[in-house]
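Hi L., both proteins are below.
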Amino acid sequence: YDWVILKLGAPCTPELIVVDTSHFKGNFPESFSLEGSFCPSADEDSIVLGDVKWEKILPETKLKGNMENIFQIELNYVSQYTHVRLNIYPDGGVSRLRVLGHLFS
């Protein structure tokens, strides 16, 4: 599988996830999962090397090609994250990942 870690623009509680596979008709990932971490003071190496705790936001979920795949998040608890890790299975193209949520100040 492949993965990427992204730092969010601001700490937030995700409410809507959009995994955009536009322009990938035959080579999009079969599925994905999304994890989050709250680590505002961690350095890049710590995050990439796994020295931070990751929580499951979305379990492994099927994707469709050449479209915006939209997922509503229903967490039973309030968690805020500074980083997300997108895991794609087995591999393939993703045009965009959008994480929309409630911001904290």
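That was the first. Here is the second:
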Amino acid sequence: MGALLAVRNLTMAYGDVVIQRDINFSIALGDLFVIMGGSGCGKSTLLRHLIGLLQPAAGSILYR
């Protein structure tokens, strides 16, 4: 079965400052997915990109 969500080569930036680059993952039906990391590492920023509040500097976010 294909992915419900696929993130490919996602780059997140604030202006000219790149904060994360080349993020790749996919989530299929039934997958358990956890975003973990230290304070300030970009977890909330990633979620804002996934729900469309922020636009990626590069890469794609695909929903099925």
